[in-house]
Known about the structure:
The chain is α+β, with helices and mostly antiparallel strands. It is built from 2 helices and 5 strands; from the N terminus they run E-E-H-H-E-E-E.
Amino acid sequence: xxxxxxxxxxxxxxxxxxxxxxxxxxxxxxxxxxxxxxxxxxxxxxxxxxxxxxxxxxxxxxxxxxxxxxxxxxxxxxxxxxxxxxxxxxxxxxxxxxxxxxxxxxxxxxxxxxxxxxxxxxxxxxxxxx
Length: 130
């Protein structure tokens, strides 16, 4: 018995009036378009996740830096020394900015009183650019 070879684009008559056909150009283009759409969506998801991770990392660094920026003022916040330092006088307290991974974190301080009490507070704001 002789074996016959065929290619997908050849139309060969099979039994029961069925024809063997290949992919048409339209089918190939539609599948390529679907593949491109899915790939674009996945790339977008990965870039969005990377941006979210970088932002979360910056927020964690700021949380650690806030502790670093507040450390010099721990002794100055004591009630008996409040009026003799930059916090009690209400002047600008300066601490050097910190650079981590080429990002500069700059603190600013806002000392004040807690309304209705004899307590005092310090509000630390840390600015950075991503």
